[in-house]
Task: structure prediction
Amino acid sequence: MRGFINADIWKNTATAFIVDEGRFAFLGTDEEVKQRLTESDELIDLQGMFVTPGFIDSHMHLLGYGHFLNGLQLADAHSVMDVMRMLKKKADEHPDWIIARGFNEELFDVPAMPLKSDLDAVSTEIPISITRVCGHKMIANSKALELAGIGPDSVIEGGYIDFEKGYLEESGMNPVQAVWPKPTVESMQKDILAGSKSLNSYGITSCGSDDFVSLSNDWRMVIDAYMRLGYQRRMTVRVNEQCHFENPREFAHFLDEGYTFDVGDDYFRIGPLKIIADGSLGARTAALTKPYSDAPEKKGILIYTKSEMKIFLELASRYNMPSIIHAIGDRALDQVLKLYDDIVLEGNPLHHGIVHCQIMTPEQIRKVVDMKLNCYFQSLFVDFDAKILNSRVGEKRAASSYPYRTLFEGTCASNGSDAPVEVPDPLKGIQLAVTRTSLDKSASMNPDECLTVDQAIESYTEKAAQTFFADDRLGKICEGYIADFAVTDRNITKIPADEISACRIMMTVMDGETVFER
Ligand SMILES: [Zn+2]
Result:
C-alpha cells in the first residue's frame, strides 16, 4: 500500500488517499490514512499540491511521436537556412536516410517553404524527406523522389505532387514513406517507450493513439510491439488504438484475423476505426466548401470519395466497430455527416466521432450535437491557429469555428494534442481552452466558446474516459478506480488562467506506481 497525504484533490474534500493493488483503495483525512497504514507501507506528503486524475490525451500518434523524439526534429528551425544546417549536420554522420519532421514555415523569420533544391544542396546521395509540423505535407530531395519512383509527370489520387519543388501532400507522401527504412518490432518498442516517457512528464497516463500507418503500413507489427510491451509490464501509458488502414482491404484482413473493437486490455486495447477525410488548415489542404480567403485558387483536398469512405464504414458497421473521422474543413465534415446519417443510431451508443472539429458552420454544429457525435478536439491548436484563422477562412467562417463550449456541453467532447503535431502538454491545452488566446496574447478566437477550467480538466479526464468506454474505472479519483493520477505544483482552478501553462507536473502515477517525478 502507498498512502498520500496533504493533497488538494480536484472536486474532492478528502485530503489523503491510499492506493493498493493499482487502485484507489481509500479516500479520507490525513489522520484516517495514517491510521490505516502499517510500518512497511510508504507514506508520501504531497505538501498541499493539486491532484487530478491522470490526463487522457484523446487523439495523438504515440508511435509517430516517439519516432519523432528519437529522430531529427526541425521544430526549432527559424529559417530555411536553419533547416539546411540541421540536415547537413545529420548528413555528416552518413546515414542511409534522413527523415526529419516538425518545421513550420509560418514561424520562420521570413516565411518560405524549403525546396527540393535546398535539400539537394545538402545531399544528392542520401535520400532526404522533411515533413511539415502538421504531418500533411512533405518535401523530398531528388534521391528520395527517385527511390520512390516519382517523376515530373507523376500524379496521385487523393494527393498532390509538385516534382519541381519536391512538394508532396496527403497521399502524395505515400510513395516516399513506402521506401523509408523499414521499422522493426524492436525499433517500434523503442519509439513507443520514448513517447510514453515524454507523455508521463506531462501528467498523461492514457491516450487514444493512431499508429497503424505512422511508420509503415504494417499494423500487425504495431500490435505486436504494443502487446510485447504489455506482457513485459513496460507500458507506462494506456493505449486505445485508433485503427487507421491504408485501404479497406487491409481493414478486412484485420477483421478476418479476429481483431475488432474493444479487444485487448487496459494497457493496449483496440479502439475505433480511424479515417482521414481531409488535410490540415496550416497546409491549406483542409477541404472547404468555399475557397481559402488567402488563396482563392485552393479549396483543400478530400482524401476519399463518398463511396470509398462508405466501404470502410459499412465494413465497420458489420462488426459493430465505431469509427472516428478526421475532418477539419466544412466540406469534409459535410461528407462525413451525410454518411453518418445512415449509420449512427439515436443517441450514438457506439460513440462514432469527429476528430478535430475546426471549420464548422452553425448548421453543422447543430447536427453534430443532435447526433451526439463524440468530438475529439485539440485546444492546443488555438495557440497557432488563432493567428491564421481569420486570414485563412475570413471572419464569418472563423466566428463559428473551433466551437469548444457548444460541443462540450452538447456532446461527449474530449481533448488531445495530435502529437507529434503539438507538444502533448495538457496544462497548456487547458489554458488555451479556457482563454482561446495564443500564449503570446497576440490573437484570440470567439470568446463565447471558452471552457471553464473544470470543463477543460474534464475534457482531459472524465470525458475522454467516457469516449473510450472506460469511465467505470478511469478518469476519476474515487475508491475502486484505477490509481492513475497527476500531481501539479499549483491548484489550476484557483489561479489566473494565463498562469496555468507555467505550472509544473511534479509527479505522475499509473496503476499506483510512480512513472514520473520531478
Ligand atoms: Zn492525428
Observations:
- The chain has 17 helices and 23 strands.
- The chain has a mean pLDDT of 96.
- Residues 258 and 494 are 49 Å apart (CA to CA).
- Residues 59, 61, 210, 418 surround zinc ion (CB under 6 Å).
